[in-house]
Amino acid sequence: MKTKRNLIIFIVVVLLCGWLGVFVDRFIPEQPRGDTLGMGIWLVFPLLTTILLRAFAGDGWRDIGLLPNLKDNIKWYIVSLLVYPGVTFIVLLVSDLFGWMDFSDFNLDVLVSVFVGGLLIQFIKNFFEESVWRGYLTSKLLTLKVSDFRLYCIVGGVWGAWHIPYFLVFLSESDIFSVLPVDRWLFALIGIVTMICWTVMYTEIYLMTKSIWPLVLMHMTEDALVNPLILDGYIKIAQGKEFLVSPTAGIITTILYLMVGLLLRTKRKKLEREIVSKSTTTVIVKI
Known about the structure:
By secondary structure, the protein is an all-alpha fold. It contains eleven helices and two strands, in the order αααβααααααβαα. Helix 3 packs antiparallel against helix 11 and helix 4 packs across helix 9. The mean pLDDT is 93.
């Protein structure tokens, strides 16, 4: 089957392209950390693969999700913009109440400036990412009638596994320790689990809107807000509490994102039942 064949090609390329980047970087040692040719290969190849599969392998372009579909979906755009700030605020509030974080270096004005300044570049970067993970992988798996939970696991697992070369090689150890005090392999495992949990809310908003744009906005907000918050040192987490309240991969944080996703799933299922009920009533009336 064409779709299955192309998905296998896509997944193989995604899982290997980062290691190709690592291999290339071995021959170009003098490169700025975090901005190497190998990282470029890792970032670009998944999108390039989807373009080639759509253009030359029969996948086509109809299900890419480029239409904004704003009608009846404005609320989901608002949810997309507020999920990461909302969960982050809850985690910071809980941490402040229990003394799990040091906010002495927290400067809201500077953080807002960094956040606003990073929006455009993150919007562009995440348009490319969401064209891959939701616009291609999720949409193609949906044509195969994959169950919800298998969909979450496959998309989240592949998305997370794509990051393995990043976690093990490209990402600096200082950035890893800013998030969690663990070695690279454990960080990679936690990262994959985190992305599977995140995938639930990304998938559900995609299913309700049939558009990648709310996901681009959501991903943009995460990268522009949460990453600088922890990586730039605006907060310091008490030793031993990182696993609980890290804004990126803490247990409480991840559970909250998973709960958001499952609540969205409940809402989607309710809407689907209402649509089926209305359709059945209309048929009965016509008869």
